[in-house]
Amino acid sequence: MRYFGRTPEQGPISAAEFRDKICHADDLQNFERAISQTLEIGARLFCQCRARRDDGTWGWVEFTGQFEHRPAGLPRRVLGSVLDVTERKRSEEALRQSEERLRLAQKVGRPPAPGSRESRPGK
What we know:
Layout: H1 15-22, H2 28-41, E1 45-52, E2 58-69, E3 75-84, H3 86-109
Antiparallel strand pairs: 1-2, 2-3
């Protein structure tokens, strides 16, 4: 909870507070879908999204957990963990960009295929 600037005395973050103040707007649909699937089919909650840290910067978090239900069957809270995966996401993005540059370099360095428009004289 310290990631979000909360103390144990303040208690857990509500789903509404997370949606309104913490979750990045571009990731909100993914978060809502993960919650819905967890509630509908009882699957474990798994979601990665950008979240506002207590200092106002954005980072990536990974939620895993399950709902704890009240006796009447209604969800009470999520029991699980929140992991800061910002560095992993940065590494994945750097790798993706590097692979894209390699693909482009290979494409530029490759001679045109025989019979292709680029291999015809005067084209």
